[in-house]
Design the sequence.
């Protein structure tokens, strides 16, 4: 067993590497540019939402509880469509800094839990590939597999989900490399 305190450097380095890689993947590479679509008559939708007094939150439409789902009126609303989930954020200019800070903290948290599992399953001096395998599996599960739930429950397009899972695989491999390289001897 390796003391968790001995893994602070791979935790931080993995977080930095993943943060930089994700920035490049989302800002430079083109494959995420098709993830979001523009609404038809966007301005009309924005006006309608504003006039309805919609506040920041996650909304489902048509909204119905379990009892209402069986009612013919509710079933008709679902047939007519549209059916969706929409996230409303606070009004104002988008400030990326809070999102970037939260993402970096998340990367640190993934690194911490990767270190925790590795520290309790691998001994000091374990060879690079064995550390890479365990760290990569844990990190991939953290970065990649959770995205599948968005396709299942939130209706996120599977093309987008698959791209996020691939991103998670890349982040997992980068994390694995940092842990394998800096694993205590």
Sequence:
């Amino acid at each position: 067993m390796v003391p968790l305190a001995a893994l602070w450097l791979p935790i931080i380095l993995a977080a930095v590497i993943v943060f930089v890689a994700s920035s490049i993947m989302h800002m430079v590479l083109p494959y995420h540019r098709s993830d979001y679509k523009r609404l038809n008559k966007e301005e009309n939708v924005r006006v309608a939402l504003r006039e309805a007094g919609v506040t920041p939150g996650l909304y489902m439409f048509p909204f119905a509880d379990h009892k209402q789902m069986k009612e013919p009126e509710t079933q008709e609303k679902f047939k007519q469509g549209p059916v969706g989930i929409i996230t409303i954020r606070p009004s104002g200019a988008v400030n990326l800094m809070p999102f970037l800070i939260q993402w970096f903290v998340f990367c640190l948290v993934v690194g911490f839990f990767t270190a925790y599992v590795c520290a309790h399953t691998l001994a000091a001096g374990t060879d690079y590939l064995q550390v890479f395998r365990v760290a990569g599996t844990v990190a991939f599960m953290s970065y990649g597999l959770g995205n599948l739930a968005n396709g299942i429950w939130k209706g996120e397009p599977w093309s987008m989900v698959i791209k996020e899972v691939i991103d998670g695989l890349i982040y997992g491999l980068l994390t694995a490399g940092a842990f394998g390289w800096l694993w205590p001897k």
